[in-house]
Structure formats: structure tokens, C-alpha cells
Write a structure and sequence with these properties.
Length: 249
């Protein structure tokens, strides 16, 4: 199982590095620390944690593919207690151009999000449509799709409503330095009751907004505001700050 996860992480980086003939590609590894707010830890019992990430993407006239692999609590045991266990999270997103309306692409959208560790496993799968909008330096990539969820250790697998969201990117220069604002956001709605036993209603919000400073070609640092409501196993609003340092290949 560990070897398969490592192979997936390396394949993300390898795919990005081999895509030099396409329009763009990127790959990086990073060290990160997620610091939950005091209110969140009091309400949910969640623990702050560090994680290592491998991230990469490629894109061209056909669309784009993006993915990451996270190793959470890398120095801990797979069977730790009180939130101090090692966990594994993977996400892969594909947007594939189908046609174009004016200058706006219509894309097939698919993503898989998988997180597991110490007797816990859940996987979210989305299939739908997306597009890409550009306004000067701003890029916005909205999507909507059917949401299928697999929770192997409780309710099983099945259709769990719909998901809509977007990715936002805004590069800019200030004080002679290169910066990037990013945001990802997901809204799940019309969720099934069997998948939401701890939530107050059947709509959930999940996302993060970040400011990145490209210190050099190979080094980026940033801070993210992470938020969730009726998600991540809690019916309360949750928020955290993530501190990150990346090495770019």
C-alpha cells in the first residue's frame, strides 16, 4: 500500500517533467504545517499537524491535469492515537476540452479525492463539466458535477448529491517581487442523509485561499487560510492557517 502511494506521488512529478513539449507544466515538493484555530480544536478535537506534499500539473490545447499527494504526520506511526497518526491524501483533477463556445472552452471535468489512515478511509469522485475564464491576469476555472462517495468503513458507496466549485489564480508583481493569489472552493449540495450524520444540513463548504511569494525560480513560500463548514466530519465552521515552503523543479 505504501509503495503504491509513493509510486502515485512520483508519477505526478514525472508526468509534469516529461511534458516539456506541451504549453505548460510544473512540479514541486513542499513542507507544510496546518494550525487549526482554537475554536476548531475545542469543537472538534482536531490536532495541528505537519505534512509533506508532492504536487504537479500539465496543460495544453487538450485541457489540463493536476494532482497532489500528501503525507500527513510523516514522523508518526500509522496507528497513533489522539490525532497523532500518519495519514495519506491524494487528489487528481482532469479537465478535457470537448468544444468551444466563442472563446470559452466546454470541458469534461473529473476529480478523485482520497484520504485514509488508521482505520479511516473516504473517497470522493466527481464527474461533470467545467470551463476556463480569463480576465487580464485573473484565471477562473469553475466546475459542476455529480458526486459519488465511497466510505469503506461506515456507510459504503453511492451517489451523494452534487458538487460545484472553482479554482482561482491571480499572479502579480509588487515591491519588485513575484506573488500569486490562489483559491479553491467546493460546495456540496443535495447530499444524502446517510453520508451526513454529523452535519446540520445537506450543504457543505470546503476550500482555502492563499498568498504565495515566489522568492526565486526554485523557492516559493506562502500562507493559506483553510476553511470548511458542514465538512471534514464536523457540523461546525472550521478554520486553520497553513504555512508552506515549496521547492520548484
Amino acid at each position: 500500500m505504501k509503495a503504491r502511494k509513493l509510486l502515485l506521488a512520483l508519477s505526478l512529478l514525472g508526468s509534469a517533467s516529461l511534458a516539456q513539449a506541451d504549453n505548460w507544466s510544473f512540479a514541486n515538493v513542499s513542507a507544510n504545517y496546518l494550525d487549526w484555530s482554537g475554536r476548531t480544536t475545542d469543537q472538534s478535537g482536531k490536532k495541528d499537524f505537519g505534512y509533506l506534499e508532492a504536487e504537479g500539473g500539465i496543460g495544453g490545447s487538450w485541457g489540463d491535469v493536476y494532482g497532489f499527494f500528501d503525507l500527513e504526520n510523516p514522523g508518526k506511526s500509522d496507528y497513533g492515537t489522539n490525532g497523532y497518526d500518519r495519514r495519506y491524501t491524494t487528489k487528481a483533477i482532469g479537465r478535457f476540452n470537448l468544444t468551444q463556445v466563442g472563446n470559452v472552452p466546454v470541458q469534461l471535468y473529473a476529480h478523485i479525492y482520497d484520504t485514509r489512515g488508521n482505520g479511516f478511509f473516504t473517497q470522493n469522485r466527481v464527474l461533470g463539466v467545467s470551463t476556463e475564464l480569463k480576465y487580464g491576469n485573473l484565471t477562473l476555472k469553475p466546475f459542476i458535477g455529480a458526486h459519488d462517495e465511497l466510505d469503506a468503513f461506515s456507510v459504503g458507496s453511492g451517489f451523494n448529491g452534487w458538487m460545484a466549485g472553482y479554482v482561482l489564480l491571480y499572479p502579480f508583481n509588487a515591491f519588485g517581487q513575484s506573488f500569486l493569489v490562489t483559491q479553491w472552493h467546493e460546495t456540496e449540495f443535495a447530499r444524502k442523509q446517510e453520508f451526513t450524520p454529523n452535519y446540520k444540513h445537506n450543504t457543505g463548504e470546503n476550500g482555502a485561499i492563499a498568498l504565495w511569494w515566489n522568492v526565486s525560480k526554485h523557492f516559493t513560500t506562502g500562507v493559506q487560510y483553510r476553511y470548511a463548514d458542514q465538512k471534514l466530519g464536523s457540523g461546525e465552521y472550521q478554520n486553520a492557517v497553513i504555512y508552506s515552503a515549496k521547492y520548484n523543479f
